Amino acid sequence: MFTASKSYLEKFFSGCAYRAFLYRRWNLKKEFMSKPMRFGIAVHGAIETSLRTKKDVMELEWDPVEVDVLDRAQRAVNWLQKNGYEVIATEVEHIAPLSKTIQLYGIIDCIAKAPSGEIVLIDWKTSKNLWAPLKLEGGEIVYVGAQGWQGPIYLTPPYESAILEEWPKKMLYVVIPEGETVEAYSYHKTDADDRALLRACELVRVAEEDGNFPKNTGTFTCNSCDFKQVCWQTIGWQKYYDARNKHAKKEEEGDEE
Ligand code: SF4
Fold first, then answer.
1. Of ligand 1's atoms, which has the minimum distance to the CA of residue 221?
2. Which of 22, 222, 226 for a ligand 1 pocket mutation test, highest count of atoms within 8 Å of Cβ?
3. Which of 77, 150, 228, 253 counts the most CB atoms within 10 A of its CB?
4. Which atom of ligand 1 lies nearest, measured to the CA of 215?
5. From the alpha carbon of 216, which atom of ligand 1 is closest?
6. How far apart are CA 183 and CA 86, in angstroms?
7. How far is the centre of ligand 1, averaged over its atoms, from the C-alpha of 102 (Å)?
8. DSSP helix/strand/coil, 185
9. What are the φ and ψ backbone dihedral angles of 5, each rounded to 5 degrees?
10. Residue nearest to ligand 1 atom 7, measured at CA
11. 93-118 pLDDT, tens per residue?
12. Which residues contact 33 (CB under 8 A, 6 or more apart)?
């Protein structure tokens, strides 16, 4: 069974498919990640800890204390409370069937119940600004940030759920911007989205079967690539990464993730 995730698909279609190959094998160590990436991980961690322990963000023992991280996390938790959401679960591992040969994988930040009783999946996004609307010819307004593969992946019902009897149909991308008010952007998946996801997964599945992940060694793709050190085998490249043990273990079993 081939397992696809948002990150795996995004790496494959990022301008250099070889990134996807390396992503399955190597984890960039936190100290070498970009500042925005480290910041986003820290904010997610603070929100999750606050919701799980039911402690106020500012009461968390955080080392080192980063005021910006705590501020963003606090605003996310405040948003949930202000809008009356009841948290059902956080950091939920999601494994869902897409086709006979493909399954989907992800970690859902939060599952919550709205005051209306509707259950929604929530994904936290740290961003400098709120998302800009895109106005279509027919007058419809869309937010491109809410239209990616993440939504259809998470909204595909899992094989089984110990938490919910019926899988939610709505996802909320909750953007926590630098200085503006927190805003939620909703997403409902469509058949067209599912077809696009299936086609994308099929391409990656075939690439994996054939071992076909072409490199694009252009400066544009390489300069910002997290896998530059291992790809180019720079001096001491090993210090930048941890091997993905999970992948290695599963590889032995002849399966993915
Ligand atoms: S360093 Fe360049 S060639 Fe290597 S994986 Fe990254 S983008 Fe591709």
1. 7
2. 222
3. 150
4. 3
5. 3
6. 17
7. 26
8. strand
9. -130, 165
10. 222
11. 999 999 999 999 999 999 999 999 99
12. 41, 226
- The kind and range of the H/E element at 96 are strand 86-97
- Please tell me the CATH code under which domain 2-253 is placed: 3.90.320
In testing the pocket of ligand 1, which one of 12, 16, 226 has its CB within 8 Å of the most ligand atoms?
A: 16
Q: Is 217 in the pocket of ligand 1 (CB under 6 A)?
A: yes
pLDDT band at 55 (very low <50, low <70, confident <90, very high): confident
Per-residue pLDDT of 236-253, as tens digits, reads 999 999 998 754 444 333
- CA atoms 132, 137, 141, 144: torsion sign: negative
- pLDDT mean across residues, the chain: 91
Q: Which residues contact 170 (CB under 8 A, 6 or more apart)?
A: 118, 120, 121, 155, 186, 187, 188
User: Are 250 and 53 spatial neighbours (Cβ–Cβ below 8 Å)?
Assistant: no
Summarised one tens digit per residue, pLDDT across range 195-207 is 999 999 999 999 9
Is the CB of 19 within 6 Å of ligand 1?
A: yes
Strands 2-5 and 102-113: parallel
The DSSP bridge pattern shows strands 183-187 and 134-135 to be: unpaired
Are the C-beta atoms of residues 48 and 73 closer than 8 Å to each other? no
- Can you say how many angstroms the Cα of residue 3 is from the centroid of all Cα atoms in its chain? 15
